[in-house]
Amino acid sequence: MCPYSQAVIMALLEKKVPFREVKVNLGAKPQDFVELYHSIIPDKDERERVPVLLNGTNRLVDSTTIVEYLAAAYPDSGTALMPPDAYTAARVKLFSRYFADHVVPAYHHLVKVSEPAMVAAAKDELLKALACVDEFLALHGAGAGDYAVGPHYGWSMSSQGGEEQSAAPYEHFLMGPFYTTAEVLATPFVARMVQVLPEWRGMDVLAECDVRKLPRVAGWMRACLGRPSAQMTGPRKKELVDGLVEWEWSHAV
């Protein structure tokens, strides 16, 4: 399962929305999938991608768009996922944008390069992006500054699908105990960094964050990985590593 599709399935599980998953072979795309995609995105030159959501007559592509749609379309079902006030919701979306624009490309770059000097530089690039996430959590997370669990912004724990649980210091989500679209969209990549990089690049991301005194991002990643929806949907380590090996051979020159 690709990380973008995983995020959508996690959101569906969090919202407790019944769904049917249809797998698509992107190496040999069925014509009906191609036609469906371009019934949403009319540009025939755009490469067809997953995920695609069909919800009655509503049709959407793009994981971020779909996850945020599910949060808005089912406000009273399952986990709330999006804060009710505009400013807090904007901070959640800002976090997702930063993570997608900086952390995800840094991770992809690290798994693609192979020359030792380039690998070392790519590791530094990823750690720099994660250091910025740590600072972002301090600036914009719950209890901004000390990362204590701050005001609940009108949320109740019932809107989060359960009772509040105690957590180790810093082991919270962006908005303290409240799980949001920020975690849904980032978790598939957090899981891949934690599972793949130790074997693929000799890099333990969580240990590196601990050594570099980045407790907020390390705790946030651990909280993300502990979420049941993440554990239910995440591919196994062997599948991820084998997929990278296959990719490396297919791109060898």
Q: So what's the CATH class of the largest domain? A: Mainly Alpha
Q: Helices and strands, in N-to-C order? A: HHEEHHHHHHHH
- State the helicity in percent bands: 55-70%
CATH topology of the largest domain: the name is Glutathione S-transferase Yfyf (Class Pi), Chain A, domain 2
* Coarse shape: globular
Strand fraction: under 5%
Q: Compute the number of helices.
A: 10
The largest sheet, given as strand count, sense and whether it forms a barrel, is: 2 strands, antiparallel
Helix/sheet category: mainly alpha
CATH architecture of the largest domain: Up-down Bundle
Nearest-angstrom radius of gyration? 19 Å
Span of the ends, CA to CA: 27 Å
Which parts are unreliable, with pLDDT below 50 for 5 consecutive residues or more?
143-159, 162-167, 245-253
Give the tally of structural domains: 2
Strand order of the largest sheet: 1-2
Q: How many E strands?
A: 2
Mean pLDDT: 84
